[in-house]
Amino acid sequence: MSRSDLEQITGIARNHIGRIENGHVSASLEILERLAEGLGVKLWEIIRDVPHGQEPQPTSVKVMAFFLKLKPFLVQLPERDRQTFLRLAEALAKHPES
């Protein structure tokens, strides 16, 4: 799927998608939700390293529920703080609990 295809199904500019792919910017929770909806996958499938079609471990569901509860607060954060939080969340997602 090309960036143009993603732009058409999500409404996210293809240059912004490229900047996310290349690590120049972090995706906001809103962008991740739009990508998940456009791709027809669940949000946790985008932010967790769980193969498509497999269910996450129960801990993953709890963590995802926690982040979704945080969403109203995240949108109120200054952009720099939100990006810091998202990088932290990404690091945590790569190192799940044992």
Give the helix/strand layout:
Layout: H1 3-10, H2 14-21, H3 29-39, H4 43-47, H5 58-74, H6 79-94
Helix pairs in contact: 1-2
Task: Please give a structural write-up.
This protein is an all-alpha fold and 98 residues long. It has one domain (3-94). It has 6 helices and no strands. The protein has helices at residues 3-10, 14-21, 29-39, 43-47, 58-74, 79-94. Helix 1 (3-10) crosses helix 2 (14-21). The mean pLDDT is 76.
Largest sheet: none
Share of helical residues: 55-70%
pLDDT average, as an integer?
A: 76
Order of helices and strands: HHHHHH
Structural class: mainly alpha
- Anisotropy-based shape: globular
Query: Got a strand count?
Result: 0
Span from first to last CA? Answer: 34 Å
Low-confidence stretches: none
List the defining traits of the structure above:
98 residues; 6 helices; globular
Care to give the gist of this entry?
The protein has 98 residues and is mainly alpha-helical. The protein has helices at 3-10, 14-21, 29-39, 43-47, 58-74, 79-94.
